[in-house]
Amino acid sequence: MRDIFISAGGRLLADWQQVCPEGAVFRESAALNADVGQALIWLHVNADSTASMLADVTGLLGRFTQARVLVLANAPDTNEAVAAFQQGAAGYCHAYSSADVLREVRRVVQLGGVWLGPEVLQRLITVGRTMVGSSQTKINATLDQLTPREREVALKAAEGLSNKLIARELDITERTVKAHLTAIFERLAIRDRLQLALMLNDRQG
């Protein structure tokens, strides 16, 4: 999947370059003329430009229907993140995140999931319950099939904890956490932590 960066600076930051060595960069979204196909579009936004960012997200997804848009924010803001997701963004993170974090963001979004932090997750739970369409009975029946350990991992992931924190609290490795989450997503027929959080929130509400 091709990586395209839109940044007023016209260059890739060091960590961006490390994660996406072949990434193309444009100074503005209007510069993208040809169809980019199934690309990951990394939209770099400065502070105090929420309205412009939202317009860019909407415009990019309208023009390139197979692409996925991730927002790189210089000054991340929960309200801005929620607004970005409501417009269709697949990810929202700090523009100066480490290469390891950006690599994980890229992996999750490439697999069809969404990337968001714990604060954004909690906000989205309150505004996006309808994103999970399974009936309550089906949700409960499916969750009852999880093993005790999978339940523990699922509940902590739904709270917004990172794999590292889940591993620390449950005294297991991050690799084991990833394996449990993969199994959980497959059993519940969901793609990512947001859907998991919405599902568990509905169950507990």
UniProtKB/TrEMBL annotation:
GO MF, one annotated term: DNA binding
GO biological process terms held by the UniProt record: regulation of DNA-templated transcription
InterPro entries recorded: Sig_transdc_resp-reg_C-effctor, Tscrpt_reg_LuxR_C, WalR-like
Any matching Pfam family: GerE
HTH luxR-type domain residues: 139-204
Keywords: DNA-binding
Matching PANTHER family: TWO-COMPONENT RESPONSE REGULATOR
Protein name: Transcriptional regulator, LuxR family
Origin organism lineage: Bacteria, Pseudomonadati, Pseudomonadota, Betaproteobacteria, Nitrosomonadales
